[in-house]
Structure formats: structure tokens, C-alpha cells
Amino acid sequence: MSGNENGVATQLSNIALLESMLFVASGPVAITRFAKVLGITPRATQKLLAKLDEEYAERGLQLQYKDNQVQLTTAAEASATIEEFLGLEATTKLSPAALEVLAIIAYLQPITRPQVDNIRGVNSDGALRSLLSKGLIEEVGRLDTPGRPILYGSTPEFLQHFGLSMIEELPPINDEEE
To answer: How many of the other CB atoms lie within 10 Å of CB of 153?
Structure first.
């Protein structure tokens, strides 16, 4: 509770409390965690998130979703300004090889390095290291086969870098181009 100018305690609405939690969260948070803290159902929490999504559509913020988790990020349209403000313009460039590997991982995740290499026809170690260091991909597990190869998937930073709210917003693959 907080006080107003007359010293009378006031209660914030659930949507205001949810927005406050999103603001201070250091990364993606499970929708169920927000629901538990607010004392409401996950479905009610999703409705509040949808309302925030609508409000943010006209502002410089957006909600980003991945695996039943959500976080508050800046809007994709603000990326150039944010990069300039933070001095990041030179650090966000990706090589054609890294972009190719990133696309393969984004569409086929989870996927192993040998599977990526097989699709590309060349070794992808350098591109994978670059993408890992930039935080655009991450290890998401291991395949249950001999050697237990690492499985890679995209990160919330990937979504933010490309202005996506969720992985399902990737454009469909055109079968003719495959």
C-alpha cells in the first residue's frame, strides 16, 4: 500500500502491480509466478497482460513471450534510438554465416551443432560461438543419444534484437525457397 497526499493508504490495482513487477524483473518471468504473487489465476494474469499489451502498442514498450514466460522490453521500433543511446550500434552486426545459423536455430529449435552443420554443409563452430557470446542463442539441453550433443535454442535477447514478442511471430518458411 502507498499513501496519497492526504496520508490515506491507497491500494494499487492488479494491473499496476503486474506492471511494477515486469519493470523490476531482470529477465523473463513465468506467468504462473505473477499469478501466485497477485493471488489470481494464470488466465486472469494473461488477461491483464493482454491489457498491458494494448496500452504499450502506442508507447515505447512491449511484452515479450517465451515458453509461458513474459518480460517487459523496449519496442522494436525504438531499437535504433536505444542502440545509439547505449552506444551499441557497432556491436550488433552479425555476419552472413551467423545470420544463417541463427535462422536455422530459430526455426528448428531445439537443434544440435551437427544438425546445423548438416543443413549448412559447413562447420558452424565460429558462428555458434559468436551467437552464444552475443546472447542470441543458448544451450537448452542435451540430446539423449551417444555423445549427448548440446541442443541450442533462441533467447529472449534474440526476440528483442529482431523485434519479436514471441517465436511464433517469425515469418513462415516459403517451401519453394527450401
So the answer is: 19
pLDDT digit string, tens, across residues 74-117:
887 887 788 778 766 545 578 889 999 999 999 999 999 999 99
3-state secondary structure of 56: helix
Mean pLDDT of the region 142-147: 89
What backbone phi and psi angles, to 5 degrees, belong to 26? -85, -5
CA distance 102 to 128: 8
pLDDT for the residue 153? 95
Q: What is the mean pLDDT of residues 137-166?
A: 89
C-alpha angle 125-128-133 in degrees, rounded to nearest 5:
125
CA-based nearest residue to 70, from 41, 106, 107, 34: 34
Cis? peptide before 110, omega within 30° of 0: yes
Q: Are 113 and 152 in contact (CB under 8 A)?
A: yes
pTM value is 0.58
What domains sit in the chain, N to C, each tagged with a CATH number? Answer: 2-78 (1.10.10.10), 93-177 (1.10.10.10)
Q: What angle in degrees, to the nearest 10, is found between the helix axes of 31-38 and 42-56?
A: 110
Task: Label each residue of 83-134 as H, E or C.
Answer: HHHHCCHHHCCCCHHHHHHHHHHHHHCCEEHHHHHHHHCCCCHHHHHHHHHC
